[in-house]
Write a structure and sequence with these properties.
Elements lengths: L27 H27 L1 H8 L5 H14 L4 H15 L1 H21 L3 H4 L1 H30 L6 H29 L2 H6 L4 H18 L5 H8 L7 H8 L1 H30 L5 H29 L2 H24 L3 H19 L2 H6 L7 H17 L2 H12 L4 H23 L4
């Protein structure tokens, strides 16, 4: 990750880098509307994605034959991971669509596709009814969701950071804060449902309830995006009749160094995010904790991610983003293994809740400023494409398969601490990417 883009940018007075074609100007009312538009739709989309991870054990029993719960869980998580392979394609196509036709049109399209995938998940009959067709139907639903989510990050993040150059770290932080809100909602559903329903009821129909809820609130996200204003960085350019270069060609020809930096910086964040979603399953299967209590711990983590992340983004605008991110990445690397050791030595709800909260806090500190850092390595005309491809490629490699890798590492080594070493490895990679961004792009 040492290859720079051809034209490194210079830092502004606020120690932030800025591409010359960015025309955004401070506008607080517009910025507040942007947070609502991007945040609501983004939370709804990632709510559905988080639900699948949390309900994986019940989905595995419903759609995969066989009586081995461990095998069914790995199969369910494999579908969870395989569908992330389509996200880079969705990122390229929807990201290029956002750069050429506007952030608004891309965000409206992505939420339509997400609702379609959620509908299939909510109503698909189980394996006992349709056989292999039900399994293929679930794969199709996840492919649609993955394609939609592929374009969501680039378009929504670009829309946020382009509202106000001086507050782009704070505004960009709502991209991940809204994902924290989705974790909060998904964990809340899981905690309540597993507390009031029996295991048989959860497997039969209970896991479908939150997906049905997503269908009910999906139109809200569509409505707020349908009537939003276009990003100020693209509004003038979209009205021009001048030929527009291909964003995909531009990204791979001129900004491949930015792809490596943005993707590398994201590695530890996305791995930790999916590890947090895997932890309730880990607590139930490896530590013998109550299902409802395990989901409650993740509920606490979701609250931390939702409310701490914007505060970190605000600090990034004032004091410099990499000054916060690099120490946070190092702390994640040195703390994950001791936390897993402590968790297995003292497998109680209190220990589990503390470990989950600490990991969530470290993640919030790290990724609060991350969206704006990733956005700064691409110009506005190719930003959604670059962000979408770097984000989704990284998520496909280090995120979507994290639960599968964690479960497989435990099965292969017999050590319940194995997931901690995987997170240590990702922290090293992200620290290297951040130091490269500081040296080659002068991002602060």
């Amino acid at each position: 990750m040492t290859a720079p883009s051809p034209q490194p940018t210079q830092p502004t007075q606020s120690a932030q880098s800025k591409h010359p074609d960015d025309t955004s100007a401070p506008n607080r009312p517009t910025a507040r509307r942007a947070i609502a538009v991007a945040g609501i739709g983004n939370a709804l989309e990632f709510f559905d994605l988080a639900l699948y991870a949390l309900m994986a054990s019940y989905i595995g029993r419903t759609f995969f034959p066989g009586g081995n719960p461990g095998v069914q869980l790995v199969q369910a998580y494999a579908v969870f991971g395989v569908t992330y392979l389509i996200r880079p394609l969705g990122g390229l196509l929807l990201g290029a669509y956002a750069d050429r036709n506007g952030r608004k049109k891309a965000l409206v399209l992505s939420i339509r596709l997400m609702v379609l995938g959620t509908l299939l998940l909510a109503v698909m009959p189980g394996y006992s009814t349709l056989g292999i067709a039900s399994t293929l139907g679930i794969v199709l639903a996840r492919l649609i969701q993955g394609f939609a989510a592929g374009g969501e990050f680039g378009a929504a993040t670009s829309f946020l950071v382009e509202q106000d150059e001086r507050r782009k770290s704070f505004l960009g932080s709502f991209q991940f804060a809204s994902q924290g809100l989705s974790t909060l909602l998904a964990a809340g559903f899981a905690a309540v449902l597993t507390a009031v329903l029996s295991d048989t009821q959860m497997t039969s129909w209970g896991w479908r309830v939150p997906f049905a809820f997503g269908l009910l609130i999906g139109p809200v996200g569509y409505f707020v995006r349908r009537y939003m204003d276009e990003s100020p960085a693209l509004a003038t350019e979209l009205e021009s009749d001048a030929p527009k270069p291909s964003p995909i060609v531009s990204v791979f020809r001129h900004h491949w160094g930015g792809l490596l930096i943005a993707g590398g910086a994201l590695i530890v964040s996305t791995a930790l995010n999916f590890m947090l979603q895997y932890l309730p399953t880990y607590g139930i299967g490896q530590l013998g904790l109550d299902a409802s209590l395990s989901f409650t711990a993740l509920l606490i983590a979701g609250a931390v991610l939702t409310f701490v992340t914007p505060l970190v983004g605000l600090l990034g605008d004032r004091h410099g983003r990499l000054r916060i991110m690099i120490p946070a990445a190092v702390l994640i690397g040195v703390s994950v293994v001791p936390l897993f050791l402590w968790l297995n030595a003292s497998p109680s709800f209190l220990t589990f809740a503390v470990c989950t909260t600490v990991l969530a806090l470290l993640k919030a500190v790290y990724f609060g400023t991350l969206p704006s850092v990733m956005a700064d390595v691409f110009p506005a005309r190719a930003r959604a494409t670059g962000l979408s491809f770097s984000y989704n490629t990284t998520v496909a490699l280090f995120g979507g398969f994290t639960p599968t890798i964690a479960a497989a590492l435990i099965e292969a080594t017999g050590s319940p601490v194995a997931p901690g070493y995987y997170l240590l490895f990702t922290a090293v990679l992200s620290t290297a990417a951040l130091t490269t961004a500081l040296r080659t792009h002068r991002i602060q």
